[in-house]
Design brief:
heterodimer, A: alpha+beta, GMP Synthetase, Chain A, domain 3, 3-stranded antiparallel sheet, elongated, B: alpha/beta, Aspartate Aminotransferase, domain 1, 4-stranded antiparallel sheet, 14% strand
């Protein structure tokens, strides 16, 4: 038995905005009958505002609830605001979904994305594309037709780290399981890229170390009548000079390692080593 | 709101008479049946007597052929592993595509261990491909495992015929029958069946969960899975679960008494439910052969709507059933049984199993018959496949 929130239960029992809009300005679909869930969303758009939204869903309780709440979330909103909605927002609005059911919220997001892509007035297509996505998208999970971009998006929006989580959110890998290695590769690539992006250039690193010594560490030491100056940086080795009461203090080694080095390790780079020079 | 429990293939209500005979062994007669003092006589005697009852339930020749286990899954694992571990030379094993996971997943594990496995398919009525079975058996075949009846569709397999096929191709091949879904629904006669090993589970016929049995004929030697004491003639160590063994024996006695009722009254209610839904719901289809089924089970596919959503709406009315839909189990694939039967993908996700018991009443069935069309009507209105549904409706009328 699923542990559905009261909101999910309310929405599958009494779904809002069911049906179709005959002269809709945008229509989007996600999922397929063969996969076990499909969502169709119809939008009426006037002067950049979603004035009406309806849905039809073939799917489980959480799929119906996700679709239903999505229509409530977008009616009356500007296209700009609607574009910002993620699967996480849908799940949050429902007071959460069981992990295995997160793909229902992803399906809502995908149907909305599809509708906006199909909207005649909508030209800003690249906006919808994540900057990290490769321009060509390829199918990773053939059982459920899940593409690399869909997996990439799910990782980015929800901070997913394991293949199991990807399966819960996108269904990819949930049937034959042959694509599990490919999914792992995408996860690895994502986090490798992320860590590369967060790596500082040598000049940035020097500036940051100097900044922290001047604005944090030095101020603390001054409280005890001491002080510190940066002398040189060679790779991960940070050379400093202790001044005032700190210089010649019996506990200066402790100050250096437990306070100065720890602070720099935490804020700049875990490999930093602090050395005192005379 | 009254509870209407139509999921008896998942588990059953414990019969009050079963509970009554168990209670003394949970309260006063707690002695270990292996102990030698007088106080242990009663529990020792109770296990012996229960073994006799289960022997009769199976129509086995000898009480020594009965091993008490903890559940149907243990019975299956003990039978299959026990046979294979005694005979390491033969590396070919056979089962069906529609077995219960306790056999199917075990066979998949065997495949990874290097066994060659053949999975026998079924037709769209859920009936086994006996030709494929015959062609698959060879000199290297160590064991064939086939269920007596399928838990999802209720379709009964022709066990006697299958046993003849197996023995005509290879006399050494052992035959294990998972009879969990027929116990209490049709008579079990291991001698007529020609099976070497037959497993049952108490909680499917109104005994509590946590007790099962395995019949092993005298010609079949098993290597035990659980090593320890001398219990069950050294084939399954562990202190006997006296109250549950006593309870299962009582449930077996009651089941035999109720067999006629199952095959007349329970069957009549099942048929009423089934024909009523098929008649009044235009997108309903039967997912099985109409003949050769256990009397309590029906599996109906509702096209273009999803099973979990149906179950949730049934549950709101107190009605318990189950679904072959992917969404209910947490797995992403729909029922392996319905896929093996090639149930169209328009219906497979909307498949609902109703399984009745001797406790099911006519009023309950009438209530479900009354409510079903309006639930399905509400849910078809949600479906994005309105054109397809309209076409189905025209076809039906």
């Amino acid at each position: 038995m699923w542990d559905y929130s009261d909101k999910v239960i309310d929405h599958y029992r009494n779904p809002r905005n069911v049906g179709k809009i005959d002269n809709a300005d945008a229509v989007g679909t996600a999922g397929s009958l063969a996969c076990g869930d499909q969502l169709k969303i119809y939008l009426k758009i006037n002067n950049g505002i979603v004035t009406d939204a309806k849905f039809q869903t073939f799917g489980c309780g959480s799929a119906v609830a996700s679709s239903s709440i999505l229509t409530e979330m977008i009616i009356g909103k500007s296209i700009e605001d609607v574009k910002k909605i993620t699967n996480k927002d849908i799940a949050d609005q429902l007071d959460g979904l069981p992990p295995e059911k997160m793909h229902c919220s992803v399906m809502g997001y995908e149907a909305l994305e599809d509708a906006l892509k199909n909207w005649d007035d909508y030209t800003d297509l690249d906006d919808l594309r994540n900057e990290n996505k490769e321009s060509s998208d390829k199918i990773v999970c053939t059982c459920f037709g899940v593409t690399e971009n869909m997996i990439w998006d799910a990782i980015k929006t929800n901070g997913l780290k394991t293949v199991e989580e990807i399966t819960n959110y996108t269904k990819a890998g949930g049937a034959c399981g042959r694509c599990k290695n490919a999914i792992q590769d995408i996860i690895d690539t994502y986090y490798k890229k992320e860590s590369e992006e967060s790596t500082l250039s040598p000049a940035q690193k020097i500036l940051k170390i100097n900044n922290i010594i001047e604005n944090q560490i030095s101020l603390e030491l001054k409280k005890d009548g001491g002080d510190i100056t940066l002398v040189d940086i060679q790779g991960d080795k940070v050379m400093v000079k202790l001044r005032g009461k700190c210089s010649g203090c019996k506990n200066s080694h402790l100050t250096l390692k437990a306070f100065v080095e720890t602070t720099l390790k935490e804020t700049v780079d875990p490999n930093i080593e602090v050395v005192e020079v005379q | 709101m009254n509870l209407i429990y139509l999921d008896n293939n998942a588990t059953t209500k414990v019969d009050p008479q079963v509970l009554d005979v168990m209670l003394p062994y949970l309260k006063d007669e707690y002695a270990n049946p292996s102990s030698i003092y007088d106080f242990a006589k009663q529990s020792n005697h109770a296990v012996k007597e229960a073994r006799g009852v289960i022997k009769n339930f199976f129509n086995a020749e000898n009480e020594k052929e009965i091993i008490f286990t903890s559940c149907g899954s243990e019975s299956a694992n003990m039978a299959i592993r026990g046979v294979l571990n005694m005979n390491k030379n033969n590396r070919h094993v056979i089962t069906t595509k529609v077995e219960h996971p306790c056999v199917l997943n075990l066979y998949q594990a065997l495949e990874k261990e290097g066994y060659k496995v053949d999975y026998i398919g079924v037709n769209s009525n859920g009936e086994l491909d006996l030709e494929q079975l015959e062609c698959s058996i060879n000199d290297d075949t160590a064991i064939v495992s086939i269920m007596y009846a399928n838990n999802e569709t209720g379709v009964i397999f022709p066990i006697e015929k299958i046993s003849e096929i197996i023995k005509s191709k290879n006399k050494e091949t052992k035959f294990f029958v998972d009879a969990v879904q027929v116990a209490g629904k049709i008579p079990i006669d291991v001698q007529a069946m020609g099976a070497d090993l037959v497993g049952i589970s108490g909680h499917k016929f109104h005994a509590p969960k946590g007790i099962g049995a395995l019949y092993v004929n005298s010609k079949t030697i098993l290597k035990p899975l659980i090593i320890g004491g001398h219990q069950e003639r050294g084939r399954r160590a562990g202190t006997e679960n006296v109250p549950y063994i006593v309870g299962m024996a009582k449930a077996a006695e009651l089941a035999v008494d109720q067999l006629k009722f199952e095959n007349t009254e329970v069957k009549r209610l099942r048929d009423k439910l089934e024909s009523n839904i098929l008649k009044n719901v235009y997108n309903a289809r039967l997912n099985a052969s109409i003949v050769n089924r256990v009397p309590n089970t029906t599996n109906i596919g509702f096209e273009y709507i999803e099973g979990e959503l149906i179950l949730l709406h049934l549950s709101d009315l107190g009605i318990c059933a189950s679904s072959g839909s992917a969404c209910t189990s947490g797995s992403l694939e729909p029922s392996h049984v319905l896929r093996a039967m090639n149930v169209p993908f328009t219906a497979i996700h909307g498949s609902i199993r109703f399984s009745l018991s001797r406790y099911t009443t006519e009023q309950e069935i009438d209530y479900v018959c009354e409510k079903m069309p309006s639930i399905i009507d509400k849910l078809t209105n949600l479906s994005p496949f309105q054109d397809e549904l309209a076409a189905l409706k025209r076809l039906k009328n």
